[in-house]
Fold this protein.
Amino acid sequence: MDRPLRIALTKGRLEKDTVGLLEKIGFDCTAVREKGRKLILPVPDGHLEVVLAKANDVITYVEHGVCDMGVVGKDTIMEMEGKFFELVDLGFGKCRFALAAKKGSPFYGGYNVKTVATKYPNITRNYFESKGMDVEIVKIEGSVELAPLLELSDGIVDIVETGTTLKENGLEVIEDIVPVSARLIVNMVSMKLRQKEIENFLELVENNI
Ligand code: PRP
């Protein structure tokens, strides 16, 4: 028999909902729930193997075909722009990209080139290019909200879910950019070679979201 279908799951925020979905389908996710420090976990009744990875790595593994499928946020998909099929909007992990700035400080206006801090430089570049606006982008790895507070930047482009992080740091949304949610992605070769199994899995997913 073939090796199990391998699915890469994004660790952290999306993990609980993804495991919840697999359990709703009826798969036994005990090994995933009791994973300890293990990173490759069997879901035997689903003939699946779960790989837990960071969002960017989910895309890398699926693109290279070492994982057949992946669950990852649309934010990461837009930033990385890899080659794979994006097949299902899973409907959880809902948030949005927004441009934000210090409360009361208008981001637009004035003649100086604005500086924008973000973990997502490609999305930010595309967004301001589409507006025909020249901005300087500073890549930050975590807690982007710090950049305007430290006056490194005029604004940030980041994920907003509840809005609490902005609020607690005296920032506000200037404009929404695009909604985000978790997606199921599939490697292009796997889709051909293991079409039947993947289609069966997709059907189970679609019936349970
Ligand atoms: C994200 C994002 C914001 C926060 C927004 O960071 O970068 O900081 O969540 O959520 P809220 O609107 O509900 O407050 P995350 O917690 O994923 O951590 P990260 O900085 O490691 O990406």
Remarks:
- The mean pLDDT is 96.
- The chain has two domains: 5-93+181-206, 95-179.
- The chain has nine helices and eleven strands.
